[in-house]
Design brief:
The complex is a heterodimer. Chain A is of the alpha/beta class. Helices cover about 40% and strands about 20% of the residues of chain A. The relative contact order of chain A is 0.17. In chain B, helix 1 runs parallel beside helix 6 (about 140-160). The chains are: A alpha/beta, B alpha/beta.
């Protein structure tokens, strides 16, 4: 089983990102489970969301304490919320930042990718909504989900609430981020 | 079932979808905290013209329960959903609904009750209503929860008793996982249109009263009859679970009442309800790999409580740990109390009450292992396992 933990601030689409990863994995033929850390929903508060991916139905409802992947949507959380807690030696960390890994998490010796998804989101969506660009970076780095499945997940998940224009922009951000992210 | 029928959706959404597919006539709910996406989705379906039920937005849970009571008394299929403080606010009406023998189905998205304020999961809300005359069913996965709703309508309408379907708040309601939601055309085969028994409904052309005055010479017999009908719904649950399996190809436990998991040779048996049973199954498989003979008895029906069936399933156990996400203050976990009562003079095993997951405390696999190790010790007192 692969376990992914997402850290962000309320309003950054963290729970949606967890859902999108799970949906994409499901479209790829895997079983998946996504759930939020059940905080009180308010803008700006630290939020956690969890995704588990396996080849059979996931029974355990335990939260994720030793993630294989950690996604940090707001770099200020590295100092504020200890998102690296429970990281294993082989855990891969993705941080929304255009700085160097050594600047964002000084002293941390694990594998960290700083991905400038905010820049992509502002450029394409025009708003600091980074979760779909982060999904592209995650797809590229993790090799866990196909980019077409991620695009379908965006269409299916956002389709109920948003119009086609917004969905198209988010899929564009996803694909751009997937393309420019380097492993 | 074939995987291509499955989709990945949020638990709340899945419940809303299945309620729509059950051809419900009247829905009423209070839309604000502690509500879930279930009624939000149902309202949206109605607003978008995708559903033809009547949706009445109530100004409190008390009103919502009263509205479905009134609607059900006119002989139509009804639905409401709530939890926590909302369920407690409904309490007076819920007792009336059971006493009036109205076949209402309610989803309780189990959450803790105040004070202190908690919006998170435990099962204190529902178990507090165990004496009301409502049948209470608890699901482990979103699939089981959705299927329990289909069964619940058939059960309610065949027994003329209300049914509360319980799903752990957040842990199930907010979780995306693969699920098959049966279509209306398939559900119709199992659940025909609701036809209330003759001369039992409120009808302007044939005026009558329901639930009126019962003097001491009859009240007691009426209450006894309700109790006996709740008990006899056990057989109906088993029958309906078998029919459901035939039509939908999916099981609800061994018999609709409970599920036994690796019980045959188990010395240590955990007894629990709801989503935590998935975590327990995972732990059992791991511990069995280490040579420990552990099993699970997952209770699906808390009311009626299947005394004889559960006692029979547990007769080989030496140590029984009962895990409750609730507590009867000054006594023990509610499930533990029921099990001890059912086991009295019939089981020799040690039975101990463990309280877990109150107010949203994450129940970890480590905690389950701790309980497995504790129950073998001599101590018999109630234990709170919070870490």
């Amino acid at each position: 089983m692969i376990e992914i933990r997402i850290h962000g601030r309320g309003g950054q689409g963290n729970v949606t990102l967890a859902e999108l990863i799970a949906m994409a994995a499901f479209y790829d033929g895997e079983a998946a489970q996504a759930f939020p850390s059940f905080g009180v929903e308010r803008k700006g508060a630290p939020v956690k969301a969890f995704v588990k991916i396996d080849n059979k139905f996931i029974r355990s409802r335990e939260q994720i304490y030793q993630p294989d992947f950690i996604i940090i949507q707001d770099p200020s959380l590295v100092q504020a919320a200890n998102p690296l807690e429970g990281a294993k030696k082989e855990t891969i960390v993705l941080i929304n930042s255009n700085k160097l890994a050594s600047e964002v998490c000084p002293g941390y010796t694990g594998k960290v990718y700083c991905v400038p998804v905010l820049k992509i989101a502002l450029e394409i969506i025009g708003k600091p909504i980074i979760n779909t660009a982060m999904l592209g970076a995650f797809a590229q780095i993790s090799d866990l989900i196909k980019i077409e499945s991620a695009a379908k997940a965006i269409k299916d998940n956002l389709g109920e609430k948003y119009d086609q224009k917004i969905i198209d922009k988010n899929i564009k951000a996803l694909k751009k981020s997937y393309k420019v992210t380097e492993k | 079932m074939k995987n291509n029928k499955k989709q990945i959706v949020e638990g709340s959404h899945a419940v809303a979808e299945v309620i729509k597919n059950c051809q419900v006539d009247v829905i009423s709910a209070y839309p604000i905290t502690p509500q879930t996406h279930i009624v939000e989705d149902l309202e949206r379906m109605k607003a978008e013209g995708k559903a033809d039920f009547e949706y009445i937005r109530a100004d409190s849970e008390f009103a919502a329960a009263s509205i479905v009571l009134g609607a059900s008394a006119t002989g139509v299929r009804t639905y409401t959903a709530t939890c926590s403080q909302g369920l407690l606010l409904m309490t007076e009406v819920l007792f009336c609904i059971a006493g009036l023998r109205l076949p209402i189905v309610l989803t309780c998205a189990n959450r803790a009750v105040s004070a202190p304020i908690s919006i998170w999961n435990d099962q204190q809300d529902a178990v507090t209503l165990r004496d009301s005359g409502w049948l209470q069913l608890y699901g482990e996965t979103n699939q089981e929860v959705v299927d329990l709703h289909i069964l619940a309508y058939k059960l309610a309408e065949s027994m003329m008793l209300p049914v509360m379907v319980n799903m752990d708040g957040f842990v199930l309601t907010h979780t995306y996982e693969p699920i098959e939601i049966s279509k209306e055309s398939v559900i119709k085969k199992y659940l025909p249109k609701y036809k209330p028994p003759q001369n039992t409904i409120l009808d302007v052309n044939n005026p009558r009263s329901l639930g009126d005055f019962a003097a001491p010479d009859v009240y007691m017999e009426i209450r006894q009859e309700l109790h006996e009908d709740v008990l006899s719904s056990k057989k109906q649950i088993t029958k309906l679970a078998q029919e459901l399996k035939k039509i939908f190809g999916r099981s609800i436990g061994d018999n609709g009442l409970f599920e036994s998991y690796k019980l045959n040779d188990a010395d240590i048996v955990l007894v629990a309800m709801g989503s935590v049973c998935g975590t327990i199954k995972e732990v059992i498989d791991n511990q069995r790999g280490k040579g420990q003979k552990v099993g699970l008895l997952k209770v699906i029906s808390l009311r009626p409580f299947p005394d004889e069936e559960i006692v029979e399933a547990l007769k080989k156990a030496k140590y029984i740990a009962v895990l409750d996400k609730s507590i009867s203050m000054g006594s023990e976990g509610v499930l533990a109390i029921d099990l001890k009562r059912a086991a009295y003079t019939k089981l020799k095993a040690k039975i101990q009450s463990f309280i877990i997951g109150l107010g949203g405390r994450d129940v970890t696999e480590k905690m389950i292992i701790k309980i497995i190790n504790s129950v073998k010790k001599q101590d018999n007192k109630i234990q709170f396992i919070g870490e």
